[in-house]
Specification:
heterodimer; A: 211 residues; alpha+beta; Ubiquitin-like (UB roll); DNA polymerase, domain 1; 2 domains; 5-stranded mixed sheet; B: alpha+beta; 3-stranded parallel sheet; 12 helices; 11 strands; globular; binds flavin-adenine dinucleotide; binds iron/sulfur cluster; binds FE2/S2 (inorganic) cluster
Chain lengths: 211, 324
């Protein structure tokens, strides 16, 4: 750990990185001179809103958004499957868009609005997609499920917004709802238990397509 | 992951100056490649400069009639842009064939161009790899090379560039616009942007220390049938074995770039000239001087067939246009 005044000065300089203080002087003060300093953490403050609640955290800059949610805010719904962007278990919504929270630094989310599975719905007041997953048995062990549900909600919004996909037959016309579209758009969420067909049923119900 | 300090840049010029003045600094955009590599300590920056707030996230028309794509435009937004879908369809198609919906929401234009190889030995710090640890050797030479390159490669490294987007941009003659630590902008044709490995596979592109990509510029629309075909081991969410990006005019002339076979998106003048003759001829021109390994030699016939299929698709699209 870097302690004392020096740290405080450098942290302020970094936090104020924009505006008048930006440029070589103060920013460079925050920079490590020795690479072996890379073994001790740099702490930083970040504020964002999670599920509608303002949160302020002081974190090691290395903390992923996923670890901030799970380890610091005890929102353990979002899961760590691979920690490398390969499985989708950590999918959350940031500014309404789905991302892999394992491949994003918490400090990069200053001012953002984040929605996790806990924010979509709670027992007793489930989000329709959560209820549909229950109704259609869209899971077995449940580990991938929070990511699947966050992704599924975002996928329907992306279709609504007219965002094309790899399987869209035309780029100039709006994509239409089809099983091929849903499957392609959900390919970033892996399910080790193979609950895919039931996940598809749940999504089709919510999308309003006869299952 | 090694510890690092972090700052948010407030202008492109300041970001470039800060990056040049700070030892072992790196820009971070979407973070989807850099953080992955930092977790494995393949990248170990001591300072990260966050470029997300620089306002480089719009797509503007150019006076010449093309498009200027901000470096921070997300892959999803570029693929979904109405002008790109209409006038540069192969670019939309290439983007949509890459990664997953979640990753495309974060991945940026500049980050995508600069993503590093997916060679499995590069990703495994226990293996010798000249790109990761210069001079240590190349584990792929005696190892599994199925995903790796056969043309433009060297004795030092046979890795491929993994981007789909960059293959389409190469076919489109895109130009990279940068700003240097001195505040001066310059333009680099994508054709000249990537270095071949030679004996220095760790040097992958033409950027100078601290140089920031501000935008990618597309020339005016080319018309024609625009095609992107990606062959991979799974139907979705997998890196390419072979890809083809092509713009084919009604008279059969056109331009074509291939991915999955070389250290950079591969475009060869003689291959463009061979387009009216067919897939086998184009493929032969692209693979001139190829050095296949036993387990990636299959990419030679695969490339020829993929080009043949792309040309057939172009004819079909043009046939439909004439009917309507
Ligand atoms: C599981 C998985 C599957 C994937 N599949 C595919 C696929 O099929 N096809 C494909 O093409 N890609 C694929 N990708 C890769 C993905 O496209 C890249 O990770 C992404 O495009 C990188 O963009 P980024 O903005 O996140 O870059 P970052 O990770 O932020 O940065 C990458 C590099 O670019 C540098 N950089 C960023 N911005 C600038 C700038 N403005 N100027 C100068 N330097 C800059 C950074 O310093 C860093 O070195 C996949 C990734 C994962 C994790
Ligand atoms: S092919 Fe290149 S990246 Fe792969 S191990 Fe050899 S040197 Fe490293
Ligand atoms: S934990 Fe983030 S994608 Fe697997
Ligand atoms: S329900 Fe077990 S991994 Fe998907």
């Amino acid at each position: 750990m870097i302690g004392g005044d020096e740290f405080d000065i450098s942290r302020r300089a970094v936090l104020l990185g924009g505006g008048a203080l930006a440029g070589a002087g103060p920013v460079r003060a925050a920079t490590r001179k020795e690479t072996d300093m890379q073994d001790s953490p740099t702490m930083m403050e970040v504020s964002f809103s999670v599920n509608g609640e303002a949160r302020r955290l002081r974190l090691d800059t290395r903390t992923s958004l996923l670890d901030a949610l799970r380890e610091h805010l005890q929102l353990t719904g979002s899961k760590k499957g691979c920690d490398h962007g390969q499985c989708g278990a950590c999918t959350v919504l940031v500014q309404g868009r789905r991302i892999n929270s394992c491949l994003s630094l918490a400090v990069m989310h200053e001012g953002d609005e984040i929605t996790t599975i806990e924010g979509l719905g709670q027992p007793g007041e489930l989000h329709p997609m959560q209820a549909a997953f229950l109704h259609h048995d869209g899971f077995q062990c449940g580990y991938c499920t929070p990511g699947q549900i966050c992704s599924a909600v975002a996928v329907l919004a992306e279709l609504q917004a007219g965002i094309p996909s790899h399987v869209s037959p035309s780029l100039t016309e709006a994509p239409t709802l089809s099983e091929a579209e849903l499957r392609e758009r959900m390919s970033g969420n892996i399910c080790r238990c193979g609950a895919y067909s039931n996940i598809m049923e749940a999504m089709r119900e919510i999308a309003g397509e006869p299952a | 992951m090694k510890a690092f300090t972090y700052s948010r840049a407030s202008s492109p010029a300041e970001a470039a100056a800060e990056a040049a003045a700070t030892p072992n600094a790196k820009f971070i955009a979407g973070g989807t490649n850099l953080l992955d590599l930092m977790k494995l300590q393949i990248e170990t920056p001591a300072h990260l400069i966050d470029v997300n707030g620089l306002g480089l996230d719009s797509i503007e028309p150019t006076p010449e009639g093309g498009l200027r794509i901000g470096a921070l435009v997300r892959n999803t937004d570029l693929a979904a842009d109405a002008r790109v879908r209409r006038d540069y369809a192969l670019l939309s198609r290439a983007l949509l064939a890459g990664a997953s919906g979640q990753l495309r929401n974060k991945a940026t234009t500049a980050g995508n161009l600069l993503q590093r190889t997916r060679c499995v030995y590069f990703y495994d710090p226990r293996q010798p790899c000249n790109k990761r640890a210069p001079g240590s050797g190349c584990a792929a030479m005696g190892g599994v090379a199925r995903q790796l390159g056969l043309v433009g490669v060297s004795e030092s490294c046979i890795a491929t560039h993994p981007s789909d987007m960059a293959v389409a941009m190469m076919a489109l003659d895109a130009v990279v616009e940068t700003i240097g630590a001195d505040g001066i902008s310059r333009r680099i044709a994508l054709q000249d942007f990537y270095r071949l490995p030679g004996e220095t596979p760790q040097i992958e592109h033409d950027l100078r220390p601290g140089e920031l990509i501000q935008a990618v510029i597309l020339p005016p629309p080319l018309g024609g049938a625009q095609i992107y075909r990606k062959v991979r081991d799974r139907a979705s969410y997998a890196f390419a074995l072979v890809t083809v990006a092509a713009v084919i005019q009604p008279d059969g002339s056109g331009r074509l770039a291939a991915g999955g076979i070389a250290p950079r998106p591969w475009r060869v003048e003689a291959a463009d000239a061979a387009l009216p003759q067919g897939g086998a001829e184009v493929s032969a021109a692209l693979l001139d001087g190829a050095r296949p390994r036993p387990d990636n030699a299959f990419k030679q016939p695969l490339l020829a067939r993929t080009i043949t299929a792309a040309l057939a698709q172009a004819r079909e699209m043009q046939g439909k246009e004439m009917m309507s």
